[in-house]
């Protein structure tokens, strides 16, 4: 497990370095994901221990958002003042985004598999 | 008794207490979620956040003190994002085959997220600062915060809006997709990941591996698309409406 946790951290570190050096508009960990993906592509398979390590991290991914979510206590006042515009914007925009992306992907995906 | 109280006062301000609080709150919320047959409406992130916020308010603890303990959990978001490479690799043959469909759907979704969020907030009288904070709300938190700052918003408000968007999408995304009859796991994952970034991806991973991989992919691509598109859209909108 430890060697692959190290590999994951190295990918993240490399991602942060490249993003910082080139001022890229993506977060370091996302580029780190690309690096790990490229390593897997070159190797041609997922080592069993990497599978375990990544499963361990991804199974509890929901937990990892709790500290940032608790940041809501910093903005109770502002959120209270703009509750209606922000609340409606989040509800409408999130549902519309899921609707548009899902329907378009299904439609284009079908066309691709038909052709 | 005095000793016990003194020790408690000391411990309640240590990182150990707030780290444990975060884990206990999540276990409790997750237990309810599992008992209710993984009903998306009982989203464990929402439950855990409400519990932690309640404890912090009751004990009069500020967010900075809480975060000293919670940062150890928060830190793992980075490695977890990197680990998404594994499900992505497993689905790579599907991704390659639908590359064009993915790109077009993602750009449409990204534009929908930006334009509807800004339009609704603007119509209902949100200030320019609030508009700039809500515009990148579908993107993973670190990118959204950077974009909001660039547009003159409040990054810490954006972080909250991002999380709420993620939870809301994870709660109601499946219902919307069922309603319009999108059953394909690739399309479902892509939609949830575009709208609700990592929290949507976490939910998708619990339901189906294909959906999880496509959600993770969408999260990464939408971060890139929004970072490139939003500053341009913002310039156009400010010229047109004087935001």
Automatic annotation (TrEMBL), chain A:
The keyword Hydrolase applies. It comes from the Bacteria. It is a multi-pass membrane protein. The chain crosses the membrane at residues 30-46, 58-76, 82-105. GO terms for molecular function: hydrolase activity. It is found in: Cell membrane. Keywords: Cell membrane, Hydrolase, Membrane, Transmembrane, Transmembrane helix. InterPro entries: LrgA/CidA. GO terms for cellular component: plasma membrane. Pfam families: LrgA. The keyword Ribonucleoprotein does not apply. PANTHER family: HOLIN-LIKE PROTEIN CIDA, HOLIN-LIKE PROTEIN CIDA-RELATED. This is Putative murein hydrolase transporter LrgA. The gene is lrgA.
UniProtKB/TrEMBL annotation, chain B:
It is a multi-pass membrane protein. Coiled coil: none annotated. Its main location: membrane. This is LrgB-like protein. Pfam families: LrgB. It comes from Donghicola eburneus. It comes from the Bacteria. The chain crosses the membrane at residues 12-33, 45-66, 72-89, 101-124, 159-180, 213-237. InterPro entries: CidB/LrgB. It is found in: Membrane. Keywords: Membrane, Transmembrane, Transmembrane helix. One of its GO terms (cellular component) is membrane.
